[in-house]
Design brief:
Keywords: Hydrolase, Metal-binding. This is Phosphodiesterase. It is an enzyme of class 3 (hydrolase). This protein is mainly alpha-helical and 424 residues long. The protein has a domain at 119-313: Catalytic domain of cyclic nucleotide phosphodiesterase 4b2b (Orthogonal Bundle), CATH 1.10.1300. The chain contains 23 helices and no strands. The chain has helices at residues 14-34, 41-60, 63-66, 71-79, 100-103, 108-111, 119-134, 144-151, 156-168, 170-174, 178-190, 201-217, 219-222, 226-238, 248-253, 259-262, 267-280, 290-305, 312-318, 323-335, 343-366, 379-398, 403-423. Helix 22 packs antiparallel against helix 23. It starts with 13 loop residues before the first helix and ends with a helix.
């Protein structure tokens, strides 16, 4: 898919915009009532935050104020983007969002002057690179949540990706602009909703670490080129940008203005792919040499769209005999790999995704719709079901492609299922 096809002008109709506003307004009233129930209070509060995310994201796609503006310019205004290494902001904070009208008066050069990592940032990057090496290039037990405790959550995503690129010698080998890569990744981190327990920049960093481990451990079978490794790691880093903590089914149900843009693609994955294309087209962030940029972004976009669970079975089936699809499947697995890692990693991520599930379940109830069963399951039941029905079968299908990873991950899957069964 060409990059330009993922940079549409806003075409959502006024009717869709009004429908979305009416639906979520009614849901807010129900959720506010739920907040008075001690048993529902936490989930209802999470659902209200989800609605805040949905409303904020709608500003990017609002026809009345954003029509005709380039996607990057809309994102820069609503997410207060900056390349400064000290300026990653929380888009959920009302004070951090500019009005859409302000985006029309600010030029891209005002918002994005490339700024490389500081000396302190470089020290962190060096230490993370060493940790990756100490884990034998496998990084299967490198805990990103512990990295966040050690180095802070802010700017961890760009630090992790640069550490991986440095280990793979990507920038010098492929002549990527490391300063512009940093600027791109700082902006990318700003496009994650930090309030999401699971779908946030820490998850993106975790997926990037998993991809690095797989391509190192199973390079002999995968045979990825340096360019493909670079695209896989970058795609992992940006694959959930703009994720609101809600499923594609819910986005469609509430008639979110972004859904019409996505067409047949999953809305959440389409938004991430579109944002990645917008960042890469921005001067000061297009770190890949011009001659290689189109191929790089084509693979990045295909990988991001391939993380949609709706195409899970088709993705695995298409991997047989198709090198490109194999690479896509590897990142797709890395996206869910925390469930197939040691319990110290699996358990906190399981709690995080269950938190998002509970919030979405409350939102479905507020919309007057029974939530899908997996959203109301216990952490134990949800993790057992996910590992046994999704992760283990995926690993068995991929065992020939990534034999060393499959052996490690299947052993961890079995141990994790045993743990959760004992907790039921």
């Amino acid at each position: 898919m060409a990059a330009t096809s993922l940079l549409p002008t806003v075409t959502a109709s006024k009717a869709i915009e009004t429908s979305f506003g009416d639906v979520v307004a009614a849901a807010v009233e129900s959720l506010q009532a739920m907040c008075n129930d001690p048993e529902l209070q936490q989930a209802a509060a999470g659902a209200l935050q989800n609605i805040k995310n949905l409303r904020h994201l709608a500003l990017v796609y609002k026809p009345a104020t954003a029509a005709g503006l380039p996607l990057f310019q809309r994102l820069a205004a609503e997410f207060n983007l900056s390349c400064s290494s000290a300026s990653t902001t929380d888009p959920n904070n009302d004070s951090s969002s500019s009005s859409s009208s302000s985006s029309s008066s600010s030029s891209s050069s005002d918002v994005h002057q490339p700024a490389g990592p500081s000396a302190a940032d470089e020290q962190h990057i060096c230490e993370i690179a060493q940790l990756l090496q100490l884990h034998g290039g496998a990084s299967w037990d490198l805990n990103v949540l512990q990295l966040a405790e050690r180095y802070g959550q802010q700017l961890l995503l760009p630090k992790v990706v640069l550490a991986i690129y440095d280990n793979l010698d990507i920038c010098s080998r492929l002549r990527y602009d490391r300063q512009q890569l940093w600027a791109n990744l700082v902006a990318a981190e700003s496009l994650y909703y930090v309030c999401n327990p699971y779908h946030n920049a820490l998850h993106a960093a975790d997926v990037a670490v998993s991809v690095f481990g797989i391509v190192q451990r199973d390079a002999a079978k995968l045979k990825p080129t340096p360019e493909e490794k670079a695209a896989m790691v970058y795609a992992a880093a940006v694959h959930d940008m703009l994720h609101t903590g809600n499923s594609n089914s819910l986005l469609k149900h509430v008639a979110h203005p972004c859904v019409q843009q996505a067409g047949a693609a999953g809305a959440a994955e389409f938004l991430s792919a579109a944002a990645a294309a917008a960042l890469m087209q921005q001067p000061g962030m297009n770190f890949v040499p011009a001659a290689a940029a189109a191929d790089f972004m084509s693979l990045v976009q295909d990988i991001i769209l391939g993380t949609d669970m709706a195409v899970h079975k088709a993705s695995l089936a298409g991997a047989a005999g198709n090198h490109r699809q194999r690479l896509i499947s590897v990142v797709h697995f890395a996206d869910v790999a925390n469930a197939a890692k040691p319990l110290a990693i699996c358990k906190p991520w399981g709690g995080r995704i269950n938190g998002e599930f509970s919030s979405e379940a409350a939102l479905w109830l507020a919309l007057g719709v029974p939530p899908p069963a997996h959203l109301t399951s216990s952490v134990q039941a949800a993790q057992i079901g996910f590992i046994t029905n999704i992760v283990q079968p995926m690993l068995k299908e991929m065992a020939e492609l990534v034999p060393h990873t499959a052996a490690l991950a299947l052993a961890d899957c079995a141990a994790n299922v045993q743990y959760y069964q004992a907790q039921q």
